[in-house]
Amino acid sequence: MRLARLGLAVLLASPAFAPAWAQEGDARAGRRLAGGRCAVCHGNDGIAVQPDAPNLAGQNPAYLAEQLRAFRDKVRLHEQMNLMAAALSETDIANLAAWYAAIEVTATPPGR
Amino acid sequence: MRLARLGLAVLLASPAFAPAWAQEGDARAGRRLAGGRCAVCHGNDGIAVQPDAPNLAGQNPAYLAEQLRAFRDKVRLHEQMNLMAAALSETDIANLAAWYAAIEVTATPPGR
Question: Which CATH architecture is the domain B23-102 placed in?
């Protein structure tokens, strides 16, 4: 995981390989934005408070950004998320992805 | 979170409110199935090992099941997931959702 993220970071840090959408997010700005819009369903710390909403804590930033774009562009259909994401800028998306990705998660599988 | 899940469990345990798709999953069977198909991208413990794949550890089971159905039925489009989910039965879906939901996650937001 850490190595995979490091690899992605190295790739994105190289101007030759950085697509327009791969901008670095500001986790603090993302936190402010998320607190007003996202926390109602996804929780203040990215652990969902609605049973049909996903946890976002510690989620991969590339995945988060891709899904926010898909909701914004109605490639992925979900009535509420299509509305919530409709006006998001690329900066908003990068910031939100950076915020949720910055939440540290640990996973403990149940005993066999 | 715990209360929300408990609420869901109570709801699903009531025959009057249990839709056909709300069957109880077998986390052990889900673990076996996930180990062969899903772990390559989503990790053995549901923490993704590919940067564009989501973590699934501790994810809400209702959300997981809904997304697996959406991939299976090509309502949600993702080339690899549409293929992986194409042959999943409702039992498979319930088992996979139960497995990933059974992984305990803790979230620690960064300091302000």
Answer: Orthogonal Bundle (1.10)
